[in-house]
User: What shape does this take?
Amino acid sequence: MTLTQLSAFVLVARLGSVKAAASALGVSEPAVSQALASLRKYLDDPLLTRSGGGMAMTPGGSRLLTIAAQMVSLGAEAESAVRSAQGAAEQLRLVAPSTIVEFVAGPLADAFTARSAGSIEVSAGVSATAEMAVLVSQRLADVALGPYLGADRSLGLVSEPIFRCRLVVLAAPDARLRGAPPQWPWLVEPGATDPGSDVSRLLRALGVPESRLSVFPNQTAAWEAAGRGGGVAPGIAHLAVHRLRRRELQVVDVPGTPMELCWHATTPPVDRRSVAAASMRHFLGTPEAMKLLRSPGAGVPPSRFRPPVYVTIWS
Amino acid sequence: MTLTQLSAFVLVARLGSVKAAASALGVSEPAVSQALASLRKYLDDPLLTRSGGGMAMTPGGSRLLTIAAQMVSLGAEAESAVRSAQGAAEQLRLVAPSTIVEFVAGPLADAFTARSAGSIEVSAGVSATAEMAVLVSQRLADVALGPYLGADRSLGLVSEPIFRCRLVVLAAPDARLRGAPPQWPWLVEPGATDPGSDVSRLLRALGVPESRLSVFPNQTAAWEAAGRGGGVAPGIAHLAVHRLRRRELQVVDVPGTPMELCWHATTPPVDRRSVAAASMRHFLGTPEAMKLLRSPGAGVPPSRFRPPVYVTIWS
DNA sequence: ACGGCAAATAACCGATCGCTTAGGCGTGCC
DNA sequence: GGCACGCCTAAGCGATCGGTTATTTGCCGT
Assistant: This one.
């Protein structure tokens, strides 16, 4: 199974004709036919069969098409990605839960880039808790900032405490909350739907049903809505400090809160760290980074954060 | 650039050593080293360089890793997908906007499967409007049900009207709506964030800012919240018929509504259609299908609607 | 300076890829 | 029936892949 075989197959499936695919590829028609034959033999499935005017896909063929199409386009992407990276800045990929990305990843990235004199380019991505550890261990991310990830010893990761904070529940000072917490309207950011997140843990502990959740595009929007009296919004206390000080929000007394949290920095073990990762890990221990973690950006998060995740339909 | 080269690279990057990768693959160390050399030459980038203890990735290498890891695992997935499809049921992939998937795709799929005596297996997927046309034209989906997609003639798709309906704005009968529509709280389902959707078009026409949107996990949850007086919720009129009849919701008079819509069925041209697609297209014209489109499921959609969109990080 | 270790290179070989030209065969159409 | 069209197979050929053993290079610690 080679990439040329797969791309021949994809092209035939799309164009519905071996001949058309051949001319599109600029090769003779038997070349394509044979690529197809090799694939058929290798996978032991006809994939495409002659039927009436064009070619019909077998069940196996249609399943293959979705996957092969991705592989082919990834192949092209790989080439251009590497070629365009020639001599480019080293990149450091940071993964974190959405709230951290929203509030502190930006300033942190800026400060770190400045510190490295621009030679390291930081990109921050959102990830579910369950995926963070494996992303780092598979070297698809360099540093994870968020919950403790050292539990799975087999991954061989180093997860060190960095910063302590508290998860609280916030609402407008004049909010009238009727009934018990499970009945309140809960205004959350998308990360709350990650079952491994602290917010999700809190909601489960309280027995808040899913139907009581309103998911906002980000934490800021959820707090905004809570400030207008739309309900309660869980959040990291110190990130809401401006809203608390301006009395737009206040802390609601809820069982299980404040929940004491500790953010960890997770990296590969020292000898397997990239220079960028080692440098970032060191930076996270400095007072400068600590200060950035403590003060929530300018309070104005990027309105639309797009995580660098590949989305595929029907995988 | 071959798949074996890529998997050798991925393994070396992950394990941090050529030797380890070789033993993991069960081949000699020069075999891996040479695969790496070929890749380096082909891509004209060192990818991995020796550096104390292990191997350090170049910028190009780290970019390649994310892509190559996917390609490798897709390759394995392709094999197993095709092999396990041997003699399996033919599958028909239907794409539609989230609302349609939520309310009518299920019953439609069931009825169609029953009609085909189980020989065709329907899976429904959510897609953004902009993607629906390419999914069908690329044969990654068989039928699209939703907006008219025939505008781009170059894709060579057939988009035929199937069903007429109306988009209206709903709220609780006792709702007190203050100010103009842009000030109201708008309770929407995720599809409303697709700029090509009808709901999004309506919101733009009214000038509703993003900050006024609360995104609920599905249309049912949004209507539920609207019924409790949380705001207004746009939606397809006939899908809310039960709630309207029970007076949980009522239609709000908003400029630009009711918006007359027409759902279309989009397929490849007749001669390029799979049997399953042709069969589904025919089914969509029958009174049976019409009835299913007209009546929203059993009125009780699945409480947790999970759109079958796979987000793949490396797999 | 000198071992020791791991990666790179060299030289070699069989298998397969990817392409060609030439010809056989099934299907649909007149 | 015959014909045209398009797919498949056959045969052949050069390039490269993927693997081996043997050797060289480069880095590190003592």
Remarks:
- Residues 2, 4-5, 27-28, 30-31, 34-35, 38, 50, 52 of chain B lie near DNA strand D (CB under 10 Å from a C1').
